[in-house]
Every structure is written in structure tokens, then in C-alpha cells.
Amino acid sequence: MHRLRGILVALFAAPWVLWALVRTLVLDGGHPLVAMISFTPYAEATSILPVVVALVMRRWIVAALATVAMVLLALALVPRAVDGPQRAGDDARGHELVVMTANMLFGRGDARDVVALVRAHDVDVLSLQARPRRCSASTPPALGGCCPPASCAREHAPRAPG
Fold first, then answer.
1. How far apart are CA 147 and CA 157, in angstroms?
2. Confidence (pLDDT) at 66
3. What is the pLDDT of residue 91?
4. At what angle are helices 60-81 and 48-56 packed, to 10 degrees?
5. Is residue 123 within 8 Å of 100, Cβ to Cβ?
6. CA distances (Å), 40 to each of 4, 11, 71, 80, 158, in order?
7. Using CA atoms, how far apart are residues 147 and 100, in angstroms rounded to an integer?
8. How far is CA 157 from the centre of its chain?
9. Quick one: residue 27, left, alpha or beta (phi over 0 = left, psi -120 to 50 = alpha)?
10. How far apart are CA 107 and CA 92, in angstroms?
11. Which residue has the higher pLDDT, 99 or 162?
């Protein structure tokens, strides 16, 4: 029974320890770990639980591992809480990037209006959704005069009904 309690305490602490290892060793390279890592603040907020459980159950090694995991998770969050060094002067903000998106309504949208908006707002990045199938993967003809050659990634999403 004594050994079973130790195993249960270790199993209880395992998610936090594994989370800290994945986060610290940057093992979050693929789906679904990339999305899960965004929940690190919540894992850190609850990371005291396995420490307390291990201490109450007198599982010193598990308590030590859970404490290390708690510290590693806290260290992962330090950059969010501490403001980094700032450069002085006008260049501190960097360059402004203007991004625009437009839904072309499967050919019912007016490309000339889009061109007028792109020119009026000095758009750097233009993303077009719901382009008609007859458009090529390159810059639509109406946009050719104001935009550099496009780098298009055609999505294979189903067409909207109606």
C-alpha cells in the first residue's frame, strides 16, 4: 500500500513535470503541443498542487521534481512579466507594417475598390479571400499595377454555399 501511494503521487505530478520538460527543452515542435504550450501560465498557476501533495504524502523525491518543474514553468513566464531593454529615439518602435484583407465574394467583389484602398492606405501585405476560381495564382490583373508579384498559397477549403 505504501508503494502504491508513492506511484499515485508520482502519476499525479507527472503532467506538470512533463509540461516543464517540454517547455524548457523546446520539444513543442508539432501539433498539438504548439497550441498546448500557450496554456503554460495555467500550468504554472496550478503547479503548487503536486508539490503540496508530494510533501503531505512524504514523497520527497517527487516533491523535489515537482518543485523543479514549478520553478522551470515560472522561469518560462518571466519574459512575459519583466519588461526588456528599450531603445531610445524614434526608431524604438521599428517600421510600421500595414496589412489588409479583403473578401472578393467569389468574384462579386470589385478589384478596383480593393486597388483604391491598397493605394490610399499604402498597404504592405494584402490577403485576398474567396477569390473566384478563374483567378490565377498570381496577382489579379486589376492589382498588377499597384502590387509586386504575389506569393500566393491557394487554400483547398470548400467553397462557400450560395
1. 25
2. 97
3. 56
4. 160
5. yes
6. 29, 19, 12, 11, 34
7. 13
8. 22
9. alpha
10. 42
11. 99
pLDDT for the residue numbered 146: 53
Domain positions in the chain are 2-80, 95-143
pLDDT tens track for 2-54: 899 999 999 999 999 999 999 999 887 777 888 888 899 999 999 999 999 99
Would you say 129 and 141 are in contact if contact means Cβ atoms under 8 Å apart? no
- And the C-alpha cell for 140? 489579379
DSSP state, residue 92: G
| Cα–Cα dist 128/107, whole Å | 11
Q: Are 15 and 63 in contact (CB under 8 A)?
A: no
Strand 99-103 versus strand 125-129 pairing type: parallel
Question: What's the predicted TM-score (pTM) here?
Answer: 0.54
Say how far residue 46 (Cα) sits from the centre of its chain: 22
- Distance in angstroms (rounded) separating the CA atoms of residues 143 and 131: 13
The 10s digit of each residue's pLDDT in 118-128 is: 899 999 888 88
